[in-house]
Amino acid sequence: MTDDDVLLVHGGTPLEGEIKVRGAKNLVPKAMVAALLGSEPSRLRNVPDIRDVRVVRGLLQLHGVTVRAGDEPGELLLDPSHVESANVADIDAHAGSSRIPILFCGPLLHRLGHAFIPGLGGCHIGDRPIDFHLEVLRQFGATVEKRPEGLYLQAPQRLRGTKIHLPYPSVGATEQVLLTAVMAEGSTELSNAAVEPEIEDLICVLQKMGAIIAMDTDRTIRITGVDRLGGYNHRALADRLEAASWACAALATHGNVYVHGAQQRTMVPFLNTFRKVGGAFEIDEDGIRFWHPGGQLKAIALETDVAPGFQTDWQQPLVVALTQATGLSIVHETVYESRLGFTSALNQMGATIQLYRECLGGTPCRFGQRNFQHSAVISGPSRLQGAELIIPDLRGGFSYLIAALAAEGTSTVRGISLINRGYEDFMNKLASLGAKVETPGFPG
Ligand SMILES: CC(=O)N[C@H]1[C@@H](OP(=O)(O)OP(=O)(O)OC[C@H]2O[C@@H](n3ccc(=O)[nH]c3=O)[C@H](O)[C@@H]2O)O[C@H](CO)[C@@H](O)[C@@H]1O
Ligand SMILES: C=C(OP(=O)(O)O)C(=O)O
C-alpha cells in the first residue's frame, strides 16, 4: 500500500452540493461483454471511468475486440470483427481482477468454440461459488474443466437451448444464461431468474442486437435463440448503488446532496427505507436530492433480498447512517453470508453493533442454520470518533468513508484505491461536496 492509497478524513462537516452518477457498475461491463456476440460494432454511452470497466476493456481487447472512446464523454465504441484472430497469451494478468470474466463463457463459446477464464475477483463478502454458472454451461452442452489457473471450456457443437431452474435467483448466473441462450440453438426457459434492474437493462441491450427474450411475472425468462446478432446503441442505466451510497453519506453527515442521474424507478425500495429512517428526498427529471431534515433519525428493521427487495449493496452504507438513528435497528443480510464483518471497525469508532448467527428477520434465509454472523442489531445514536481504518471491500470501503466523514476528529483510511472499482472520480466528488480530506504528502 503506497501513500497514494491513504486518505486522511477530517470528519464533522456535512456533505453539501451536487454530484453526478453515470452508468451502473453492474451493467456496463456486462453490456461490454455482450458486444462480443455481435457481428457489427456497438456503441455504449454513459460509461463510467471505474476499474471494473477498465478490466473488461482490457479483456475484450485481448480477445480481439477493438474498444475506443467515442465523441461523447463516456461513450465507448466496441468492434468485435476480429475476435477469431485474437491472441490471449497475456490473459493471466487479469486473474483476480473482477467477477465479469465468468460472463465471457457463452459469447466466446459461440464465437470460437472454446474459452479460457482466469480466476475471478470481486468483493470478499462470502464464498461466492460459481457452481450455478458451471451447471448452466454444461446444460447448454459445453464441457468445463476446472484447473488451478482457471476454467477451460469447449463447445463440441453448437450450444443448445435448455430448461434451467436456478436454486437461487443469482444475478451472475441469470446473466450467464442470457448471454449464452441468445445464440444457442432453439429455446431456453429459465425459472427462478434474478430480475435486478441491471438484468432488465442487459435484456434491452440484447434485444437491440436482435435477441428474442420474454420476461414473465414469475421470475421466468424465455429466450428464443437466433443465428446472428448485430450491434447495439445503448445508454447504460444509472448506478443506483452509487446514488444510494451518496444518499447515505448525506444522511449520516447531516448534509444535503443532489445526485444527478439518480433514477427513482430503480431505487424504490431504497427510497422507502430512506424515508422510514427519517431521511428526506425530492425527485425531479434529472436526479434526486437527499438530505437530513433535522431532528432524530428512526431505527428500523431491514432485510436485504434479491430484487424487487432491498439490494444487498445498499446495506453497508445504510448501516453507517443507522448508527445515527435513535433506538435499535435490525439488519438481516440474506444475500451474502459474510457482509457484516465491516461493522467491527464501526464499533471501534464508537458504534454499538452486535452481530448474530440467527436470522433476525421475518424470512429465514439460507444462512440461518449455518454458523454465519449475518444479522446485526445496531443501537444508536452513537458519537463516532476518527480511527485507523483499512478498507475491506468496495461498499464496506465507501461506508468507512461515510463513517469517517460523520465522525469527530481525523480518520486515516487505507486501501482507498479499492473504491475506484465502483465509484467514479470519488475523490473529486468528495471535494466538491466540501469534505475535508487530504492525501498525506499533498495536504489541502
Ligand atoms: C458485478 C455484479 O453485478 N455484482 C453484483 C452481483 O454479484 P453476483 O452476480 O456475483 O451475485 P449473485 O446474485 O450471483 O450471488 C447471490 C448469491 O448466490 C450465490 N451463488 C451465486 C452463484 C453461484 O454459482 N452459486 C451461488 O451459490 C452467492 O454465493 C450469493 O450468496 O449481484 C449481487 C447481488 O445483487 C451484487 O451484490 C453484486 O454487486
Ligand atoms: C459486491 C459487489 O460487487 P462485485 O460483485 O463486483 O464484487 C458490489 O458492487 O457491492
Automatic annotation (TrEMBL):
Cell wall biogenesis/degradation listed as a keyword: yes
Sequence ranges assigned to domain Enolpyruvate transferase in this UniProt record: 10-430
Annotated catalytic residues: C123 (proton donor)
Biological pathway: Cell wall biogenesis; peptidoglycan biosynthesis
GO biological process, one term: cell wall organization
Residues binding UDP-N-acetyl-alpha-D-glucosamine, per UniProt: R99, D313, V335
UniProtKB keywords: Cell cycle, Cell division, Cell shape, Cell wall biogenesis/degradation, Cytoplasm, Peptidoglycan synthesis, Pyruvate, Transferase
Gene Ontology cellular-component annotations: cytoplasm
EC number: 2.5.1.7
Main location: cytoplasm
GO MF: UDP-N-acetylglucosamine 1-carboxyvinyltransferase activity
Gene3D superfamilies attached to this UniProt entry: Enolpyruvate transferase domain
Residues modified to 2-(S-cysteinyl)pyruvic acid O-phosphothioketal: C123
Subcellular location: Cytoplasm
UniProt catalytic activity: phosphoenolpyruvate + UDP-N-acetyl-alpha-D-glucosamine = UDP-N-acetyl-3-O-(1-carboxyvinyl)-alpha-D-glucosamine + phosphate
Binding site for phosphoenolpyruvate: K25, N26
A family per Pfam: EPSP_synthase
Annotated family: Belongs to the EPSP synthase family. MurA subfamily.
Function as written in the Swiss-Prot or TrEMBL entry: Cell wall formation. Adds enolpyruvyl to UDP-N-acetylglucosamine.
Protein name, as recorded: UDP-N-acetylglucosamine 1-carboxyvinyltransferase
Organism: Mangrovactinospora gilvigrisea
